[in-house]
Structures are given as C-alpha cells and as structure tokens.
Amino acid sequence: MEVLKTYKIYIGGSFPRTESGRYYPLLDAKGNTIANVSLSSRKDVRNAVVAARKAFGGWSEKTAFNRGQILYRMAEILEGRKLQFLEELKKQGSSKEKAAREVQAAIDCLVYYAGWADKFQQISSTVNPVSSSHFNFSALEPMGVIGIIAAQETSLIGVVKFIASAICGGNTAVVVASEELPLCAVTLAEVIHSSDVPGGVVNILTGKLSELAPALASHMDINALVKESLGGLDKPIALACIENLKRNITYQPGTEHGLQNITDLQEVKTTWHPIEHIGGASSSY
Amino acid sequence: MAKKNPTQMQTDWTYAPAPESTSHIRLEKKYQLFINNEWVEPSSKKYFPSINPATEETLAEIAWANEADVDRAVKSARKAYKEVWSKMSGIERGKYIFRIARMMQERAREFAVIESLDCGKPIRESRDVDVPLACNHFFYYAGWADKLEYAFPHKIPEALGVAGQIIPWNFPLLMAAWKIAPALAAGNTVVLKPAETTSLTALKLAEIIKDSGLPAGVVNIVTGFGDTGAAIVNHHDVDKIAFTGSTHVGKIIQRAVVGTHKKTTLELGGKSANIILDDAPIDQAVEGIINGIFFNQGHVCCAGSRLFVQENVADLVIKKLKSRMESLYVGDPLDKNTDIGAINSKEQLDTINKYIKIGKAEGAEIYQSECSIPSRGYFCKPTIFTGVSQSHVIAQEEIFGPVLTIQTFRTIDEVIQKANNTPYGLAAGVWTDKGSRIFNLTTKLRAGVVWANTYNKFDPVSPFGGYKESGFGREGGLHGLSAYLK
Which of B5, B80, B237, B460 has the fewest CB atoms within 10 Å distance of its CB? Predict the structure, then answer.
C-alpha cells in the first residue's frame, strides 16, 4: 500500500494548508485524482507577503557568497531528489524524456544562478567620474518582495528560474505555482526547506491564477511582479500594479533566462561621498 | 550694537543689488511649435502667456499644441527616424550631439538669464548649475552614440524609435537635456513637451538644434498643457514615454500605456530624508540642510524635505539652522546675491501656502526667516516646522517648496525605519563623521540616490532615479542609456 503525499503550501518556513480550507483535485489524463491541491486564498497571499517582508532584511544582508552557496545547496538537494520530480512530472502528463530534460534544466538553472550571486553586481555597477570632488558609485540593490507567477506550461523549470533569479540577488518571493501543474512547486518547497534557505525567503502557494494573480498585483507591499505573458490576464495585472508602482516584469513565453532576470529585479542606487583635499602631495607622490 | 563703531565701517551687511543684465538675450514676442526643424503655427490657433513669476509680467506668447499638432510632430519624428537617424552611424550621431553641447556652451549666459526670468530660480543657480549641467549632459551622451555595444554585456543595442518626453518646470533646460541627449545618443528621435510655465529655454534649445544642422524631425518641441502631454502619451506611433513630474500624473500615464507596446520611465515625486547624526560636522550639516531644502526654492523632486536630527544635537542644529536661514536673500532671481528666487507659479505658491496652513493646523511649530519679500511676484519665506511627527500630512506629502519638516530620533534603527516609512524612495542624505556608519545607512535607506555629507549634487555621469513610488528607470550615466534601448 503506497503512502500518498499531501500537497500543502509553504509560508514562512512551514507547510500549512490554505487558511481557506479549500482544495482542488488534480486529475491525470484518465480522470483519476492524483492529488488534492490547496486552493489558496487572498489571505494566504497576505500572510505570505508578511513572511517574505520579514525575511527580506536578513536575506538581503547575507553575503553574496553565502547566497550563492545556498543556491548551490538547492541544486544538490534537487539532484538527490531527482526521481521524485521525474515521477511527479510523469504523473502530470510529461513523457519520460521530457521530464528528464526538465529536471536537468532545473538543476542546471540553480547552479547557474548560484554562480551569479557574487558576480552580477560587478558587471552591473559603475564608478562614476563626476566633475566634483566626490566618490560616486552606482550599485544594485534587491527590490524587496517579489511576486512570482510561475510559467504555467511547466511544473518545475518555470518556477525554479524565477525563484533562483529573484533570491540570488537578495530578494524574497511569494510564488504562485502553475495552476494545472502545481506538484513540483510544492515538492520544490521541500527542497528549499532543506537547503538552508531561511524561512520566509521563498513562499509558495497553489491555487487559481485568476484569484491569486490579482491579489499579488494589487498588494501594496510587493515591490515587483514577475511572470510570463498570461494573455488576457496581462492587462488587469498591469493596471493593478500601478497602485504602488510595482515593477511589472513580463517575459514572452520561451524567453531564455539569464543575467537580465536578476537585474530586472534590482534597483540602481547611486551614492555620493565627498573627497577631502587637504595637504599632501598633489600629483607627484 | 550699542558701541559706536570706531572705524566707521559699514555694519549694515545688506548687499547692494547686483542684477544680471537682460540686454543680451533675444526673446520673440510669440513662439510657434518646433516641428521638422521649422517654426509652425499651432493648428489650434491658440497661444498662452509665459509669465515671469518674479514680476508677473508676460515674457512671451507660447503656442498651444493640440492632438493634430502632436500628430504632426510624431509623424515628423517617425520619418526622421526611418529615413535618417536610424541609418546614421553612431559617430555621426555623436557629432551632432557634441555640436549641440558646444553651441549651448557658447550661449550659456543667455540661457541662464532666460531660465531665471521664466522659471524664477536665482541666476547664480541657473548660471552655475542648470545650464552647465545641461551642456555637460549633451557632451556626456554624445560620446556614447558610437559605443553603445559596450554599455550592457550580452546585449545588442537597438533604438526604440520615437520617444515622447514630458518634462517639469523646476529645471526646464536641464530636464530637456536629461531627456533629449540619451535618446539621441541611443538612436531615437524625439517629441518633447516642456512644462506650460517654463517653455522658453526648450524653445531656445530648438533654435540651437536648428542652427546645429541636426536633421529635420529628429527633435520636435511641442508646447502646451496637460492635454498636449496626453496627446503624446496616447499617440499610437510613440514607442517610448519618458516623464518627469508628480507621482499622481505618473500613474495616470502608466495607466494610459498599459496594453500598448510603449516603454516608460517615470521620474516622480519624493519626500527625501536628510539625516543628521550627533557626530556630524554640524556647520557643514547645516549648510547641507539649507541646500537640501532651499535649493531652487525647494522645487526639487529629491529635496531633503524631511530632516531627521539626532536628539542630543537637535537644539544646536535647529538654532544654527534658524540663524543661517536669517542670512538667506529672498528676492529678484536675476540678482547675483539672491539665494531664493520666485516660486514658479501662482498655483504652486497656493499649494505651498496650503501645506503651511495644514502644518500649523496639525500642531507643528512654524518658523520663518524674517527676510522681506518683494511685494510683486510669487515668493515664499524659507519655512521650517519643528515638533513634527510621522503622521503629519506635511511629513508625508510632497510640498515642492521651501518648507522643511524636522523630526528627531535617538537610535540609528529608529531613523532608518522612519526614513524608509514612506511610499517614496528618491533620495536621502546622511551626515556623520564615521565612514562605517555612512555605509550602514546608505545601504539601508531605500532610495535611488544617497548623498553622504553632501546634498543635491548632480552630474551627467551619475544615474538618478527612484525606488518605489518615486518612479522607475534611471537618468544619467551608463544606466540612463538603458531607458532608450531595446
């Protein structure tokens, strides 16, 4: 007799059921129930944002090197759980080959962003030679709490790439999993949970896109929203984002991820510092 | 005072007036729209006056562009983009921009005087800050035109097309430069709308653009009010909207472009914190406070309008601040002694006075310097409020005038929280003698520009722009280029 898994959501480092008590059944091609998935509510979104905001200070102040190590740890744990993800992908309708490619891509993606953690700053920052006696530099800082809507047509890679690129740069995240293919996102939460990622840095919800996407878009304490184009939902989401001038970052489906996924979630901060010129040799030291 | 001055030296330290001459400036009575390198009458047939806010006299009549005029300007910009500008090599584009910078430098004095006349800002400021920075901005971006592939790793630079640009009245020429220079360097063509109270220097810039031989249609300048701006924002053939102005209007613009292909950058309002720690060099800090809030009559989006002083030095700082305020000269913008010129418009003066009234009603304690202000024109005494708390309207909303709110704090954690507790995130200032403390604060303040032991410094190479509801995108420096590239 197989022990079935309960798919719950992930908020602030724990795995509660949705506060709403609702669920939706996930069916396989033959109409059999694979799992009962949490149908998260607006209130779950709010709880997740509180957790993400609370985690932001500590996570953004960790050293870039440390964040890189933690992302690499995620890759290690995902590698160790490969079989579980393969099974889940197949359950959700993927072929064996496609599932294998997707899991490999997810592992590679984590390794890729693990490596970026302490490098993107060097590539994107500038020291600016101002025409006055100041030391002036522009460096990137994480935007804060990022709302992530997973790419809908994949279960794993479409959520991993957005999480990795957001947290790599010191942001925290509230993630809405693919509505039709939510299983891997929940299992990924277990990977995250056992990878030294502090609770609250990544929060993962499952449920209806039409309910959760507007809740993310209109939340006043989310700094940016990342997604792939959702067709008709794009416009209402964009309008809702304006209330707090949330950065609304929408990629065309199939866009390759890379450095830009990190920098799109960073603000540029310019700092001015005076340089004193008193005494000392002028140019001939 | 009681003692007789034995050497008979003059002890009345008021300055004799030293007004800058206006004899060498050339102003037309009437300005048309600048479209396709020609001065054209607006199809609206309407004109509006540009007022000198220091005298309330009309300086010139300005054309009021309607939708049809904007359409004409966009068509001219599109044609120039397709047929000329997108085909030109970077180095050639750069040469035009360099030439514009040079011609502005040659006519710098004329620009400074007209800016002060039209805008109300002290001549010292337009002469030493606005105009040189505007020239330098063109000079800086000119050099980028043939080097765009170096700007962003792994990206092939591509222009966006036609950029619609809407600028505010606080730094009219400088904002025009901030918008036009990077747009041209990146290979875009431009339709620019100056603010309705300050069109003149943009129109003088159009004269230079024409003289420079820049291909027709690359830069078009349409003057008018909000409806003119709306026509630009809503025009289907504009690829990019760059706006500097209020957060309120910024959000309206953002709503208008949702669902279109238009890219936006918004440089919006602020309520920036200026933080004085107890180990700060107090006299320098007081200068920084003055510069932070009274520079350009406080018409500065990044003005240090929320002052936070550590409790144990608050009395001293406020005493010195009040004493320094007494030496500020408020008056004729053209006088070289003037520190604080005219408020840009009657409307803005009303807004400022409304906030001063609110501040008093909220129970904050007001102090205004005892200076005299001219009987004609729009002027406001330098004003500070003490006894302000976070919940006060005057501590939350952007006043955009010479009005400072002062709060105190005990610990660094407290001031970081207070400073960040605002929907804005444009700028911040930190005053302390300790380097490690500076970097603790500068990294924790959620703002796009942070000045340590200085304030209100600007430079073409230095990216400027906000976090949160102060907008998005950067202007200036390498990062400013990305706003005009795909």
Answer: B5
